[in-house]
Amino acid sequence: MSDIAVMTDSNCGLMPEEGRRYGICILPMPVLIDGNTYYEGVDITSEMFYEKQKAGALITSSQPSPGDVMGMWDRLLKEHDEVVYIPMSSGLSQSCASSMSFAREEKYKDRVFVVDNHRISVTLTHAVLDALNLAKQGKSGAKIKEILEQEAMDSTIYIAVDTLEYLKRGGRVTAAGAAIGTALNIKPVLTIQGDKLDAFAKVRGMKSAFRTMCKALHKDIETRFSHLYEKGLLQLGIANTWMDTEAIERWKQALTLEFPGMELTHIPLTLSIGCHTGPGALGIGTVRKHVL
């Protein structure tokens, strides 16, 4: 059995220090703020990020440099036989495609396995934990990649955006549309199904947005994922950008009541999503889990 290191990036919602507790190597994602580069969980916290965002800073997401990616591979390969790297979905960033290209270099061939798992946030975290469990079962890096890519579509995410301000700043909503939407208390609901972030619905108020997301999630569980649900192989997830503790606890309680008996994981939404949604966004979803 080969010794396998499991690696991901901070788009999973876990920071490098948290990753060490799980035995996961986490590459911090860069974010550009007023022309300066910060690394998620290293030299900028969520609180600092959203304070700068609300103050009007110019913020854009970025991807890790080739040196950062391959530098971590090199360090891991000094202590491990293989590396399984699960970055954010290829449909949401070029980082996955770039890493696959790097992994074809001779020094990494058959030693580094880049997984296009089409995941982000809590669903990506579960894929990474699955990789750890599969490695413990004695699966090779190549086999882990094969399994995770086969199961890539066994997840669904819905995200309610509390403010239109940051979609307007990013050019995804016009200034006029944002003004009208704000006046009407419109909350866009987005969805991530595999490799893309798409519009799903527009509703009035976060409570209506939550009901809309729950209805969609019920439908997914009853149709696409019924075979997994019946076998006890589905896990609930909830994630959020910056909001107070009491608010997220209320949403967690509401989700637990809506889906009784399902295990719930809470992980913050990554800054890569927060760049576009701003604070107060709420995501819910479900994902396949592996049972040892």
TrEMBL record:
Ranges in coiled-coil conformation: none
Protein name, UniProt field: DegV family protein
Name of a matching Pfam family: DegV
The keyword Cell membrane appears for this protein: no
Cross-referenced PANTHER family: DEGV DOMAIN-CONTAINING PROTEIN DR_1986-RELATED, FATTY ACID-BINDING PROTEIN TM_1468
One GO MF term attached to the UniProt entry: lipid binding
Keyword entries, A-Z: Lipid-binding
InterPro entries the record matches: DegV, DegV_C, DegV_domain_contain
